[in-house]
Amino acid sequence: MTRNAGDLTALSQGHNRAEDLEDLALGDDYALNPAYIDMVVEAADRGDAVRLRELIDALRPADVADLMGFLSAEYRYELLAFIAPEALAEILSELDYHIREDVLEKVAPAALVRALEELDSDDAADLVEDLEDDKRDEVLAAMSEADRTSIQTSLAYGEESAGRLMQREVMAAPQFWTVGQTIDHIRRSADDLPDLFFDIYVVDPSYAPLGAVPVSVLLKSNRDTPLELIMEPVTEITVEMDQEEVAYIFDKYHLISAPVTDPGGRLVGQITVDDIVGVIQEESQEDLLALAGVTETGRDATVLDVTKSRFWWLLINLGTAVLASSVISAFSGAISQLVALAVLMPIVASMGGNAGTQTLTVAVRALATRELSSVNMLRTIWREIAVGLLNGGAFALCVGAVVTFWFHDPLLGLVIGMAMVINLLAASLAGILVPLTLERLGYDPAVSSTVFVTTVTDVVGFFSFLGLAVLILL
Amino acid sequence: MTRNAGDLTALSQGHNRAEDLEDLALGDDYALNPAYIDMVVEAADRGDAVRLRELIDALRPADVADLMGFLSAEYRYELLAFIAPEALAEILSELDYHIREDVLEKVAPAALVRALEELDSDDAADLVEDLEDDKRDEVLAAMSEADRTSIQTSLAYGEESAGRLMQREVMAAPQFWTVGQTIDHIRRSADDLPDLFFDIYVVDPSYAPLGAVPVSVLLKSNRDTPLELIMEPVTEITVEMDQEEVAYIFDKYHLISAPVTDPGGRLVGQITVDDIVGVIQEESQEDLLALAGVTETGRDATVLDVTKSRFWWLLINLGTAVLASSVISAFSGAISQLVALAVLMPIVASMGGNAGTQTLTVAVRALATRELSSVNMLRTIWREIAVGLLNGGAFALCVGAVVTFWFHDPLLGLVIGMAMVINLLAASLAGILVPLTLERLGYDPAVSSTVFVTTVTDVVGFFSFLGLAVLILL
Fold first, then answer.
1. Looking at the DSSP assignment, which residues form a beta bridge with residue B260?
2. Closest CB from A215, A281, A310 relative to B219
3. Domain boundaries, chain B
4. Do domains A172-290 and A303-472 have the same CATH topology?
5. Which chain A residues contact residue B9 at CB under 8 A?
6. Which CATH number fits domain B172-290: 1.10.10.1400, 3.40.980.10, 3.10.580.10, 3.40.50.300?
7. How many whole angstroms separate alpha carbon A47 and alpha carbon A45?
């Protein structure tokens, strides 16, 4: 939708060199071709400025940003010189967060001011936020009063709030206008309107949104139709709303855009679905990474960054592993009498860990999509208990049989079978109760549930198996 | 954007009873209030048809669908009678997959035919696909020839293809038209156009898309401007493209809609971003669940469904746990000489499992977002090796110190430290190489990686710790 000017020329001139390059640049799946990245690196190594500019001009902003993500810092800085000023704004917006901070340091303040003026207020504020303090002051001082105020207002909202996500540019019309008046107004004031918009917000005299007219509906209606007659109800977003909630609302009601209101109910901006696609990707990625105990570091991260991003989780896990070991330690005597116990005990713990993770993952997803609430909480807990007992029973039979044959000891088979039922039940309970409790207490269940659940399944697994062995076998 | 007619009346009449009910229905976060669901259940128990209809009429289709998701099957069937025929189509489209199949069975074929006629071709095809064979034939036979053909064409495309995702209704215009001609045409043929559209596709005489004019750009331009001058290049989607690829393209280029072409390059439909939001949710959910080894069953699933959805993964895990046990078994002699080995060995395996899962999760995400490709593969592998060695070293020191104090045995501390380095390195290597290899072989790395990685970390963990103990301590 938003290619740069170079692409547009390429298209209207038909099949020319730039278009050939674009075909080369992207695979059938629209991902950057590794061969193309090599071509860029080679041209940079040769110092071939003409070729480099040609290669970059053939790409859309999102692809240049992707290219930069694959390059090392030195090549990235070199590329910067060849980017057309008008393309810079969009490329900066598209860069991975980690890379952007780094690239922004290398862009001259004057170029940055020009780039920021090209962007919608939400994207501009994002960029300014990533600047270092000194540079931010310098850049803001060089901007027009209006642009500066708009960016500062945006930055005053919380980091993941609707206020930050919205763009301040909207197309609003009073309720008494007709379709014809609205179309004429849009044509006259084209320059002051957002680049793209999908809904016209109908507002009352106090600028409170009353409804919305999708642009296609406006086009389909007769010129003398009052907006009031064709407007549809709107789902209002308030500036303080969390972006995760905004994404939920967009997804639920299939919104393309929504008006954002301040606490007084006045229309102050709009959020469009293309911003939401990014939020959804981000939020689901956060859950996935949080469950595995890693934080996002980006493809450009150093070894030290990555090591640190994993260290703390492993340290916590070490604590719980030592706790589990101390349980085993309490049964040293039993193990030295019957080494088979040491051989078999990891099976019980491992099955519990996996069953717990299964339950936990489903619960975290259901909480995120609001499919698990107080309405079906009890029902879901009972179902998990039943599932734990059923799978526990099934695997008690499996593993009981295997162990009976392996060690020629039916009693040992009985012990591990009983421990399996107990631990899969514990896994089910912990898998559902831990995330529910964390959610109730106001914590993100994705972030900390895993460690609690695996601690439960390790401790219960070792304790039940070894404890039953002492009672029954020794 | 798409509330039902009841809402519209409520809005234009100001703050009336229906609006009060809507306020009651949804929390501040737009999720259904549990209290509201209780009210529905109570009204159903009392057989209070008037109240039930009132409660349902206050909700938008997406909320009715959500409500049905929280109710048990009996209540759900009861509700069905109170749903206005014109709302039924959208509610059916919004229902969870599992619940929809069940609800569709209860809807009379005649009502279904009417509902299908209200929907865009993609949504209609989705519904028809979920029907049982007998009912599908009956419903298709009762539809108009045009609708039937359109649904059958849609169903002929692969299940997760762009062809299935697209709607056949598009607004196309020849390149020589002006803005004014286009607006007049849209107004004249309003009934034949899609309900909502965001781009006008400019086509050549063979109906190949040449570019797109966003509706807001059309509105801003003068009536005598030729479309050719204001059109922007389009990103073409082909009918066979996988929906995951389509989502990647929409996310990358921030598309609102895109034209879909057949193998001959003719425009045959369009995909809009609201369909893509659903796909993105679906795909990231699939990755998350696959990594944990569960399949989606829905909130309505029976105990048996859920048990089965988890059984196979646990069975595979049992196999790998038994494999790990057989490694331990080979060291029975060592363990009976030194029970401390049994106490400590789970620490090594557990740390490896966690480190492997961290690496694996990051790699699976990077592959899905195309941030890991052959360009940075080697670099990423080296980085993971370095991270494994660094964290391995750090935890070797931690755990070595703990064990030395705990068991007053520096050599035992040395053994577990060495095993820790080896296993965290193995975890890093397996965590990156397993998903890369599966991807190369054409498998989904999210689905099967976890089991391979944890097998490696279990086997290497036990073998290295017990093996080193035999070499150094005994």
1. B237, B269
2. A215
3. 5-165, 172-290, 303-472
4. no
5. none
6. 3.10.580.10
7. 5
DSSP character for A321? H
Q: A137 to chain B nearest CA, in Å?
A: 30
What is the spatial distance between Cα A26 and Cα A74, in angstroms, rounded to a whole number? 23
pTM for this one? Answer: 0.87
Kind of pairing between the strands at A237-238 and A257-261? parallel
Residue-wise pLDDT for B263-277, tens only, equals: 999 999 999 998 898
Q: What was the ipTM of the complex prediction?
A: 0.87
Q: Which one, of A332, A360, A346, A362, lies nearest residue A458 by Cα?
A: A346
Q: How far apart are CA B117 and CA B49, in angstroms?
A: 28
CB pairs under 8 A between A and B: 407
A303-472 folds as Tetracycline Repressor; domain 2 (1.10.357)
CATH (residue range B5-165)? 1.25.60.10
Determine the angle formed by the axes of helices B121-130 and B109-118, rounding to 10 degrees. Answer: 150
Enumerate residue ranges in chain A where pLDDT < 50. 1-15
Contact list, B343 vs chain A (CB under 8 Å):
325, 328-329, 332, 335
Residues B474, B468: Cα–Cα separation, whole Å: 9
**Interval B40-80: pLDDT, tens:** 999 999 999 999 999 998 899 999 999 998 998 889 998 98
Distance from CA of B411 to the nearest CA of A (A): 18
Residue A202 CA to residue A232 CA, distance in Å, equals 9
Structure tokens at B120: 């865009």
For residue B202, the distance in angstroms to the closest alpha carbon of chain A comes to 13
Chain A neighbors of B285, CB-CB under 8 A: 284, 365
CB contact (8 A) between residue A281 and residue B277: no
CA B245/CA B332 separation, integer angstroms: 52
Nearest Cβ partner of B70 from A332, A376, A391? A376
* Cα end-to-end distance, chain B, whole Å: 74
**Distance from the B141 Cα atom to the nearest Cα atom in chain A, whole angstroms:** 31
> Amino acid identity, residue A102?
D
Instruction: Name the residue of chain B whose CA is nearest to A9's CA.
Output: B233
Edge-to-edge strand order for the sheet containing B199-203?
B172-174, B199-203, B209-214
